[in-house]
């Protein structure tokens, strides 16, 4: 062995410091300090300017993790032999001490004996090679947190001149850490559901006779790979009020052992009886829990989550989802069309971010489909679009209309259907107005209006020319009516009622980014690695880095350095990010002339 590594907790290994307990500060910060109120939160008038992450973490009880001053030591063998040359026997005081190394995974167990009096100074513990040691567990856990796998693990160890372990040993540590992560996540989710019930009780939403509380959730699915060939699909339900994850489901449609045995059976390398015996023993351990297409994983995960919600004393009466209606349709068709809950119909609300994209997609389709082909020389043809070009529906104009659509949805939340519809149509008519036909009747009146036309009327001034507008378009009457029909279809009463709360799937999208940071989409990953990524990301999302770290649950202890790192990561996650500022334009010096300097 060329490396001698040690942990203070292991009595049979050379150590550096004596373990001295140190009580750290609580994981959950103190209650949020009230600051200037923000108008972005329409749910409470007295809301404070705190980040969503800080608001989530502050809902949990404070804990005081015990931090121990532990250090890991890595030393080359010649330096260690030089150090051992100064050691004398405690029996005969001889310096003829023999040191033997016993390698166990990444650690090296040291045994010492005296060659003069045959006394054993340090014994090799029995069964040490059957244990999961601390150093290897820490390094495998660090590899999983950074999103790496076995190849990156052995590459890093080789560069650091550290021993390597087999793929089988790496898999044993991976499965053990994943089981601990899932257990920790389940405990956090149980605590989360209790917090959600308390928050809804503050809003006078009391449980029924069975103790079940009706809540609103945002639901979205994500896949390991893009396209329709992903082996893993994940569905997550997040409470719309507290923004906390309340339940999730991971689906897998591939098992390596099952596929291997089926391949061997087709090649007649094993008999049918051997295959049946394997299936019987492997059924409980099989990673495959879904059979079907990858695109329907989102619907299947939603059905599982809704069906078991009553066991968790919750009813998801409102689902906030994107434009895909397959999930909502599958939920309402449960129990022969009666829905998942007897006597309560699940309602659907639209994510305003996804709903605004519908306008962009429909206008883009309108541009692409309405054209005529003009015959050119040499048999070539050119497409002449009817509604695309300068002064019409360019890509810039479509993006601006979609931005105005989304802004009106966000600004009109909590009002009524008519107000929201008028705000959306006001942006449409405003951008299509001309000097001959000004359409500003829906724009807000007054001198403080965003509409230049209404401001001029309020100040008793002649309105400026519409040619000064930066965002404008002009279409022929037939094409204008087609765009108007798209706006009228998207502002129907039933659709505006789904958007009136102004809810989004931003919490789900944020969680998805956190999940796949632990599980690279470009690389192959097995079920254990996906389960770890999902459970660990959900725990971090709900309670923060400090409480979700698994070093204490794994029995490794938390070092003071790691405690400081986790607190700093929580501070960064919970800080209130400044709004994006527009880029400053370069000041043009009009007095400069060519050759003037």
* Largest sheet, spatial ordering of strands: 10-9-8-11-12
The helix fraction, in percent, is 40-55%
Distance between the termini: 71 Å
Q: Using only CA atoms, what is the Rg? A: 32 Å
Average of pLDDT: 83
Shape: elongated
Our estimate of the beta-strand percent is: 5-15%
Largest β sheet strand count, sense and barrel closure: 5 strands, mixed
SS element count, helices: 20
Uncertain runs = 1-47
Topology, number of strands: 14
Q: Could you say which structural class the secondary elements and strand pairing correspond to?
A: alpha+beta
Protein name: Mutator-like transposase domain-containing protein
Domain Mutator-like transposase: 89-451
Pfam families: Mutator (PF20700)
InterPro entries: Mutator_transp_dom
Q: How does this model look, in words?
A:
The protein has 597 residues and is of the alpha+beta class. The protein has helices at 52-57, 77-84, 134-145, 150-159, 167-202, 256-266, 272-282, 297-307, 326-332, 334-337, 352-369, 395-411, 417-431, 452-458, 477-490, 493-499, 506-517, 527-543, 545-548, 560-574, and strands spanning 3-6, 21-23, 66-68, 73-76, 97-104, 107-114, 120-122, 213-223, 232-239, 245-252, 314-321, 347-350, 371-375, 381-385. It has a five-stranded mixed sheet with strand order 10-9-8-11-12, sandwiched between helices. Strand 9 (232-239) and strand 10 (245-252) form a beta hairpin. Helix 11 (352-369) runs antiparallel to helix 12. It is elongated, with a radius of gyration of 32 Å. The protein starts with a strand and ends in a 23-residue tail after the last helix.
């Amino acid at each position: 062995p060329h490396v001698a590594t040690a942990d203070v907790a292991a009595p049979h290994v050379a150590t550096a410091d004596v373990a001295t307990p140190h009580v750290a500060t609580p994981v959950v910060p103190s209650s949020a300090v009230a600051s200037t109120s923000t108008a972005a939160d329409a749910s409470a008038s007295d809301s404070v300017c705190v980040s969503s992450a800080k608001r989530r973490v502050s809902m949990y009880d404070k804990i005081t993790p015990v931090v121990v001053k532990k250090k890991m030591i890595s030393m080359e063998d010649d330096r260690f032999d030089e150090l051992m040359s100064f050691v004398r026997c405690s029996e005969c005081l001889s310096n003829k001490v023999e040191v033997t190394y016993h390698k166990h995974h990444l650690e090296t167990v040291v045994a010492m004996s005296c060659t003069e009096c045959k006394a054993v100074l340090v014994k090799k513990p029995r069964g040490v090679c059957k244990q999961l040691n601390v150093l290897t567990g820490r390094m495998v856990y660090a590899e999983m947190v950074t999103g790496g796998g076995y190849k990156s693990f052995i590459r890093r160890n080789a560069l650091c001149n550290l021993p390597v372990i087999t793929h089988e040993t790496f898999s044993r540590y991976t499965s053990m850490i994943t089981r601990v992560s899932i257990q920790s996540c389940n405990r956090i989710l149980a605590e989360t559901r209790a917090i959600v019930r308390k928050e809804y009780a503050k809003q006078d939403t009391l449980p029924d006779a069975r103790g079940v509380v009706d809540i609103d959730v945002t639901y979205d699915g994500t896949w390991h790979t893009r396209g329709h060939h992903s082996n893993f699909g994940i569905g997550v339900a997040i409470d719309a009020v507290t923004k906390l994850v309340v339940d999730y489901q991971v689906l897998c449609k591939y098992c390596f052992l099952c596929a291997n045995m089926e391949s061997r059976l087709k090649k007649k390398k094993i008999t049918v009886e051997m295959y049946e015996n394997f299936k019987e023993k492997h059924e409980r351990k099989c990673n495959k829990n879904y059979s079907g297409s990858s695109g329907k994983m989102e619907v299947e995960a939603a059905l599982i989550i809704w069906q078991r919600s009553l066991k968790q004393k919750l009813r998801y009466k409102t689902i906030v989802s994107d434009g895909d209606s397959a999930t909502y349709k599958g939920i309402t068709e449960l129990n022969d069309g009666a829905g998942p809950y007897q006597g309560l119909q699940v309602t659907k609300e639209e994510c305003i971010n996804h709903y605004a994209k519908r306008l962009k997609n429909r206008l883009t389709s309108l541009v692409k489909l309405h054209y005529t082909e003009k015959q050119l020389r040499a048999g070539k043809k050119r497409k002449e679009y009817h509604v695309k070009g300068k002064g019409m529906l360019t890509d810039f104009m479509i993006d601006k209309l979609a931005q105005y659509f989304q802004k009106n949805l966000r600004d009109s939340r909590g009002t009524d259907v008519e107000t929201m519809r008028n705000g959306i149509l006001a942006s449409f008519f405003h951008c299509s107005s001309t000097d001959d036909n000004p359409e500003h009747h829906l724009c807000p009146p007054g001198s403080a209006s965003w509409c230049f036309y209404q401001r001029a009327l309020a100040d008793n001034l002649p309105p400026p020319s519409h040619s000064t507008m930066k965002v404008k378009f002009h279409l022929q009457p037939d094409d204008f009516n087609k765009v108007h029909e798209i706006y009228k279809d998207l502002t129907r009463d039933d659709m505006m009622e789904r958007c009136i709360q102004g809810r989004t799937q931003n919490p789900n999208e944020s969680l998805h980014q956190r999940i796949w940071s632990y599980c690279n989409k470009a690389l192959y990953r097995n079920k254990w690695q996906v389960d770890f990524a999902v459970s660990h990301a959900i725990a971090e999302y709900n309670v923060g880095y400090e409480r979700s770290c698994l070093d204490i649950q794994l029995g490794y202890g938390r070092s003071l350095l790691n405690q400081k790192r986790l607190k700093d990561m929580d501070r960064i996650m919970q800080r209130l990010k400044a709004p994006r500022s527009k880029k400053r334009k370069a000041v043009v010096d009009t007095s400069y002339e060519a050759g003037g300097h």
